[in-house]
TrEMBL record:
InterPro entries (alphabetical): P-loop_NTPase
Chain segments annotated as coiled-coil in the UniProt record: 206-233, 462-496
Annotated protein name in UniProt: Uncharacterized protein
Source organism (scientific name): Fodinibius salinus
SUPFAM superfamilies: P-loop containing nucleoside triphosphate hydrolases
Keyword terms, alphabetized: Coiled coil
Length: 958
């Protein structure tokens, strides 16, 4: 191959092989990114439906994320390497050419040595045949084509384009973080602008690649002329050197690509976070807007319109002149004030309508805040101009941050106490009552002028009425002004909170405000105490003692235990009481109620025992759902399965059934019944089943069995509270026996699910062998320490407060804690685990009881922290002092959950009057509460009562 042939082959290889392959790669690369612009343009067709737009942007970000995940870091290099292989493979490994004349003539760029050598060569040049050059052509071309600077610059340029796509989409999302709905023209404009930028970038990159290929061609030609001469030895292009350059190129590009990918994924993650923030903001904007409209309607309906009507009546009344007209005006005004204003205000104050509107607002906001993702990465100190960009990041608890900001920026500013809603309405009511009195007294006085001044009756009556009406008009106008001012004040607070919430999160997420992030960390960082020298020494000494005492620990504990036991036996020592505190019932209930009232509003809502369970906070007992699914699956396969759900009062039986059955079983197949009242005869059971199952024609359980077995479709029937299907009386078991018969006779046609209180189940299992009728059993009151912890902390985290557990004298004694005293974070973890272990033991796995003890453990709140003091096992003295008859009565309530005075008379063999008297005594002491005509144990006293009954061995006898 001569020089001319090589030049032709090289031009062809670079122009027809290498460059087209690079162009094809670039075209495919930009084609994938142009698809994103088509997605953006498609958002225009979604109109002003914000939900659809946000869904569309989420799809675009998903597609972009897939591109980031799928892009192999070596794609460009791989395409380039394949093309280089195709270029170099046809070339000969070595060629011998005669040196050109330029190799004998000194050039300006030559070094002194090369210039002298060329001069000597020129003088010695006699036979041209002796001046040939040996060129390792294949390695030479490959070496120069692996120019890392050129390949790196192409890769950088492509990644810069991709970075620009991400930032453009993020900037567009930022423009949407206003209360106004997004303008669809913006999406189209951005799509068109982005498409034009992509076209320009593609053209620029193609041009850049073409220019760089020309430079490579020039470098190769120059190298070919020099190689094999005095200027460059052929060994310069040895194979090892070429492979080393290739490897160096691969490593540099790999490192560069990894850095670019990391940066782009961080920015892509921030863009996804911006979309999530946009969703949160629009939800909050919508809820704030609805609250403003609701308040506007409320003020208009309750305050503004009635006052305007009153103002109009007063203006009209100024034209009245006769005594009869003034008397009629008085009656009309009094009726309007009493019925349209005073009556409505009194009703709203009693029902706390105004406060409820705010509470619903809080609930909606906090519910939306708790839908935020758990953790996110915040970016700060970014330099996007560098190649690759430099970005610092930090992970934060995003959900906690959002909930805290909702609480601080919105909720705390419009709480009922701060805005004094009730006080405002009460003041307004008093002013309206004053107006009513003024109308009554003044217009009555005007009418009385008729009798006092016979000769001047017309003029004086009119004058007195006019002056009274003028005073009333001034008062009403003042009230109108105050109402409008109060309305504006509330609206401004909502708007300011909304704006500050938006500005704070935008500064943190989009602008990467490091100062804001540092302030945030300083404010919400887990509380750390200064580790003084005394604390450090105590911690170190505890660790030393721990090692020194290992050899004697067992023996010492054994000696102490023996001495203590002997002391109790000989009467020198008394057995230590388990209780840490003793109190009477009134004190205990008062303390608990006071604790509830002192809680922040959001905490009272989260730990409201009477509210319907929220699925987000629900924690089910281990394997409960799987047991139900297993039983239901077997029944579907024609195995006659039945299921019983057993648990203490307040352990979540109803919640478990509602959530699990709703998820597993279709509505048209499920029938749910609840035994609200205690029944004990077959007729009562037939009536309940007839109403619930729609078979009112049945007159007996046998007829119910026949009707159910004749159904064309199989059903699932859930009966809750079967502890109300008997009375602990000699003749009180007919219903539970008939129900068991019904279940056993229809279990092929019906999947029966029942719930029962734990102590009733235990009692009925001994009396009628209840468990024999159920193939599967699950419990809801056997939560372990981890599950109890989740029950509490799932709710607590939604409040936005940070927990701080306090230590007591008993906790500080063990060396296991003292060793951690100089590390506040580990000490808090230790105290938290210790607390929840004790709480689980005290609550005996009952979630509701655990929440009560949790509330009682709260010492105080501040703006950031919730301080938890150690658990107190309070012994209620009055319960232990009750006589056996009262204790057996309480045992009956534990057994049945809810019973009436008539039921109690049958159970305890008392007259109805004696039964009523017993209930009144227990209710007055706070042990019982009434609901819908029946009575049950006060939930705040449930654990104390059960503990005493177990200690007396009464609960095991029932």
């Amino acid at each position: 191959m001569n020089r001319q042939t090589f030049q032709k082959e090289l031009n062809s290889a670079l122009g027809d092989t290498l460059l087209p392959k690079l162009d094809a790669y670039v075209e495919e690369w930009f084609g994938d990114r142009r698809q994103l612009t088509r997605y953006l343009s498609a958002l225009e067709r979604k109109g002003n439906d914000q939900a659809k737009i946000e869904e569309g942007v989420a799809s675009i970000l998903g597609a972009l994320g897939k591109l980031l995940d799928d892009q192999a870091t070596e794609q460009l290099l791989e395409v380039y390497q394949l093309a280089v292989g195709e270029v170099t493979e046809p070339l000969p490994s070595h060629v011998h050419w005669q040196q050109n004349d330029d190799r004998f003539i000194s050039q300006d760029e030559d070094s002194l040595f090369v210039a002298i050598a060329k001069g000597v060569k020129g003088i010695a040049r006699s036979n041209p045949e002796n001046w040939q050059q040996k060129i390792p052509l294949q390695q030479l071309v490959a070496y120069h084509l692996y120019n890392v600077d050129f390949i790196s610059s192409w890769h950088q340029q492509l990644q810069r384009v991709q970075l620009e796509i991400i930032t453009e989409i993020e900037e567009l999302l930022v423009t949407q973080t206003t209360e106004e709905k997004g303008n669809t023209e913006d999406w189209t404009t951005v799509a068109d602008t982005l498409k034009k930028k992509l076209d320009d970038h593609e053209q620029a990159i193609r041009q850049r690649m073409g220019d760089d290929i020309d430079k490579l061609k020039s470098q190769i030609n120059q190298a070919v002329e020099k190689t094999g001469t005095l200027e460059r030895r052929p060994a310069y292009y040895r194979e090892a050197r070429t492979l080393s350059r290739r490897k160096e190129t691969e490593q540099k590009l790999q490192s560069q690509a990894e850095k670019w990918t990391e940066s782009q994924q961080l920015l892509h993650g921030r863009t996804e976070l911006m979309l999530e923030l946009l969703n949160i903001l629009h939800a909050i904007f919508d809820r704030c807007s609805r609250l403003r409209n609701d308040l506007k309607s409320y003020f208009s309906e309750v305050v503004t319109d009635p006052l305007n009507d009153l103002h109009g009546l007063l203006q009209q009344g100024k034209k009245e002149t006769s005594v009869r007209q003034i008397h009629q005006l008085k009656e009309q005004l009094m009726q309007h004030v009493d019925e349209q204003i005073i009556g409505r205000l009194k009703k709203d104050i009693e029902q706390q309508v105004f406060t409820q509107k705010a509470e619903h607002f809080y609930d909606d906001l906090l519910m939306r805040g708790n839908q935020a993702s758990q953790e996110q990465t915040m970016l700060h100190d970014m330099d996007l101009e560098k190649n690759p960009p430099e970005i610092d990041s930090r992970k934060i608890d995003w959900r906690l941050l959002v909930v805290r900001q909702i609480r601080e920026q919105l909720v705390s500013k419009i709480q009922p106490l701060q805005q004094q809603y009730v006080s405002f309405l009460a003041e307004l009511l008093e002013d309206i009552r004053d107006i009513s009195n003024v109308i009554d007294v003044n217009l009555e006085s005007a009418v009385a002028v008729e009798d006092d001044h016979q000769g001047e009756k017309g003029e004086d009556t009119k004058e007195v009425a006019r002056e009274a009406l003028e005073r009333l008009l001034n008062t009403v106008e003042e009230l109108q002004s105050r109402s409008e001012e109060k309305h504006r004040e509330i609206i401004d607070v909502i708007q300011e909170g909304q704006e500050s919430f938006t500005e704070f999160l935008l500064a943190l997420v989009h602008e990467g405000d490091l100062n804001e992030l540092q302030l945030l960390n300083a404010k919400y960082k887990a509380k750390e105490t200064t580790s003084g020298w005394q604390t450090i020494i105590r911690s170190r000494m505890a660790q030393v003692q721990d090692h020194l005492a290992l050899w004697s620990r067992f023996g010492w504990k054994k000696i102490k235990s023996t001495v203590h036991t002997l002391g109790i036996f000989l009467g020198f020592l008394q057995k230590e009481m388990e209780e840490t505190k003793r109190a009477d019932i009134a004190t205990y209930l008062s303390e608990t109620d006071q604790k509830m009232q002192e809680l922040p509003y959001i905490y009272r809502r989260l730990f409201n025992f009477d509210a319907k369970a929220d699925q987000r906070f629900y924690v089910q007992a281990l394997d409960s759902a799987s047991i139900l699914k297993k039983a239901y699956g077997q029944w579907q396969q024609s195995f006659p399965s039945t299921l019983a759900v057993v648990g203490e009062k307040g352990s979540g039986k109803s919640t478990f059934l509602n959530l699990t059955l709703e998820a597993e079983i279709s509505d048209n197949q499920l029938i749910q019944l609840t035994m609200h009242d205690t029944i004990w005869t077959e007729d009562q059971l037939v009536e309940v089943l007839g109403d619930g199952l729609g078979i009112k024609s049945a007159q007996s359980i046998q007829e119910v069995v026949e009707i159910i077995n004749g159904w064309s479709n199989r059903k699932v029937i859930c009966i809750e509270c079967i502890q109300n299907c008997f009375i602990r009386n000699l003749n009180g078991y007919e219903v539970i026996e008939k129900l068991c018969y019904l279940i056993s006779e229809t279990k092929n046609q019906v999947f029966w699910v029942v719930s029962c209180s734990r102590y009733s189940w235990r009692f009925l299992d001994k009396t009628v062998q209840l468990s024999d009728y159920f193939s599967h059993l699950t419990t809801t009151d056997r939560l372990d320490a981890d599950q109890i912890k989740r029950v509490i902390l799932n709710r607590h985290r939604s409040s936005g407060y940070t927990l701080h557990f306090e230590v007591d004298d008993d906790t500080i004694k063990p060396r296991s804690y003292r060793k951690l005293m100089d590390d506040e974070e580990k000490a808090q973890e230790y105290l938290q685990e210790n607390y929840f272990e004790k709480l689980t033991e005290l609550a005996e796995g009952n979630a509701s009881v655990a929440m009560i003890f949790w509330i009682r453990s709260i010492r105080e709140f501040d703006d950031t922290y919730c301080y938890i003091q150690p658990l107190e096992v309070t012994s209620v003295e009055m319960i232990k002092d009750l006589d056996p008859q009262v204790l057996f009565t309480l045992a009956a309530f534990v057994l049945h959950d809810t019973i009436s005075d008539e039921d109690l008379s049958m159970i305890m063999h008392l007259t109805k009057e004696e039964s009523r008297l017993m209930i009144n005594r227990l209710q007055s002491r706070g042990l019982l509460v009434e609901k819908d005509g029946a009575y049950g144990i006060n939930h705040l006293m449930y654990r104390q009562i059960v503990r005493v009954l177990k200690e007396r061995n009464i609960i095991h006898l029932v």
